[in-house]
Amino acid sequence: MGYLVGVTALWAFSFSLIGVYLAGQVDSYFAVLVRVTLAMLVFLPFLRPSLLRGKQRLALMALGAIQLGIMYTFFYHSFLLLSVPEVLLFTIFTPVYIALLDDLMFKRFTPIYLVTAILAVLGAGVIRYDGIDSGFWLGFLVVQGANLCFAIGQVGYRRLAADLPPTLAWHNVFGWFFIGAMLVALPAFLLFGNSAALPSTTLQWGVLAWLGLVASGVGYFAWNQGATKVDAGTLAIMNNALVPAGLVVNLVIWNRDADVGKLLLGAAIMGASLWLNHWWLQRRKVAAA
């Protein structure tokens, strides 16, 4: 849980940095390429190919390609179809996908996970809902593609970790994750990128360096490690904890408008979903004793 909380705080700052210094100024495909490249360079020196078999390496690369590469391709394209509030609103369905996919991959059905995930969606919806326009269905489907990719990456990582030795040094194999993401990010930039919209200031390059080395490199490693250490219900809920965290950072540091009442109410609903999930887990442990 500590991993997820720490990365939530880290990514809450990252969203504001993107919105203030990069969005609309630096080509999004180039930004993704830089982030993935820097993150990959962080882990390449530690890479030990012999620790994983060929199929396991390919599986980790595929997870990186889906969770980062394809997800970002969907996500950035959605801004061409929707307003920013609509994109943010439609990202809140990720917990439901996580709850359902985790049960599917581990061949079970846990109704409480679905209930708590839906509560997390409602909480985030209270915070983010600003109204939507007509004619948004294509954009909605594109965002759901991004949500589904992010969910597949997290649950797939949990499933892969379950089949590997618990003593595996993940920092010695995680480079494959970013190599997989690079196999998507580089062609995406070459096909869709705008080379006329590259960073033009030292500050923009600094923000990209931070996002690549820390938010992407350290962040995705820690988040996926955290995903293997909690139950699916907690993971699903934490996926929407970024909404109130990001708004708090934006409000305190950049003084952006935010409805504090909606923020507190939505956070309270998500907190209730975490409590419900924890209560159910403790009850199950007592029943099994």
UniProtKB/TrEMBL annotation:
Pfam families: EamA. The keyword Protein biosynthesis does not apply. It is a multi-pass membrane protein. It is found in: Cell membrane. Keywords: Cell membrane, Membrane, Repeat, Transmembrane, Transmembrane helix, Transport. Its main location: membrane. It comes from the Bacteria. Residues 3-127, 138-274 form the EamA domain. The chain crosses the membrane at residues 29-46, 58-75, 81-100, 112-129, 135-157, 169-191, 203-223, 235-254, 260-281. This is Carboxylate/amino acid/amine transporter.
